[in-house]
Design a protein that fits this description.
Elements lengths: L1 E4 L23 H7 L8 E8 L2 H10 L12 E8 L17 E10 L9 H14 L9 E4 L3 E4 L2 E13 L4 E10 L3 H12 L23 H22 L5 H6 L7 E6 L2 E11 L5 E5 L2 E5 L5 E4 L5
Parallel strand pairs: 1-2, 2-3
Antiparallel strand pairs: 3-4, 4-8, 5-6, 6-7, 7-8, 9-10, 9-13, 10-11, 11-12
Helix pairs in contact: 1-5, 3-5
């Protein structure tokens, strides 16, 4: 694994008050190398103290590449302890304290045109579930997926995915996959988000955040990074070759809201209501309504449990 650390920023990232079981909240490079599988070993991995957005950093770099399927032989990973302009889906700010959240982006070129990238974020979600469940977590089955881009732990948001396309041709697409995983500090994060949500209408609020330490008290950035990247390696290769269809059964098996009544919202306004019936071979949500089955494509929509859950 080619791991590099950039020079520290002008204003050093503050050290968290709490430290992990190893006594250090930073990523342990030697341990990460030992934990990486044979393929992820080859990925260039950059670790920086602070940046605006790891997605934006890699987007700028990938946009400068030749528009060929061979433009990027291996995925590039960029990790930051602090993102000053980090964001989630639909432009939401991603709140995270240094050392408590694993924030990274992966840039890669997939041998598929733009129209064949449907379901990529769902396939990445499958990888994250598999990676996180490979850790010694209590109740691994409680780590599940919420359509389209969230990983849940006991019903609360553990991780989010944001995918952006840098360029696309008839034969290939360059994408940047941003991933944020709450590793520690669940109580502090929930309190902060709760205070911010106090002024937001209930229907517009996101899923309550939680952290991996809830199911794994010794959770740390190093082990979480290795677990997620090891799982992503195989998923990206298979998605590039076959698209989302082979991941459909696995996603449905991890579906947090399977068989439950849900509400689909757009900008806080209800658009549809029905029983969540999983996803199809393109990653579209299947919703059984009184008037029949609806197929919902990903877009500027949010999914909520009809019984008042997130």
């Amino acid at each position: 694994m080619n791991v590099s650390n950039s020079a520290p920023p002008a204003s050093p990232v503050p050290r968290p008050d709490s430290s992990d079981a190893k006594g250090d909240w930073r990523i342990d490079r030697e341990r990460a190398v030992a934990l990486f599988g044979p393929h992820a070993h080859d990925w260039p991995i950059e670790i920086v103290e602070e940046t605006g957005s790891t997605n934006a950093d890699l987007m700028a770099r990938v946009k400068a590449l030749p528009r060929k399927s061979t433009a990027l032989p291996r995925p590039i990973v960029r990790v930051a302890y602090l993102q000053t302009a980090g964001r989630g889906r639909r432009g939401r700010t991603w709140y995270a304290e240094p050392g408590n959240a694993l924030l990274f982006s992966v840039a890669c070129v997939l041998p598929r045109p733009l129209e064949e990238l449907a379901g990529l974020s769902l396939a990445v979600g499958v990888a994250l579930v598999d990676g996180l469940r490979s850790l010694p977590v209590a109740g691994p089955g409680q780590i599940a997926l919420k359509w389209p881009n969230d990983v849940l732990l006991e019903g609360d948001k553990l991780a989010g995915i944001l995918i952006e396309t840098a360029w696309s041709t008839e034969y290939a697409s360059a994408v940047v996959i941003g991933i944020g995983t709450n590793v520690k500090g669940a109580d502090e994060l929930a309190a902060k988000v709760g205070a911010l949500n106090a002024e937001v209408p209930a229907q517009a609020r996101g899923t309550t955040p939680t952290a991996l330490s809830r199911a794994l008290p010794t959770a740390n950035l190093t082990d979480t990074l290795a677990a997620e990247l090891n799982a992503l390696d195989a998923v990206l290769k298979r998605f590039g070759a076959e698209g989302f269809e082979p991941f459909q059964p696995r996603w449905n098996a991890c579906h947090a809201y399977a068989g439950r009544e849900v509400v689909l919202l757009e900008q806080g306004v209800e658009q549809a209501r029905g029983i969540a019936a999983g996803v199809d071979e393109r990653g579209q949500l299947l919703l059984d309504t009184p008037t029949g089955r609806q197929v919902i494509a990903t877009g500027d929509v949010s999914l909520r449990l009809a019984d008042g859950g997130a």
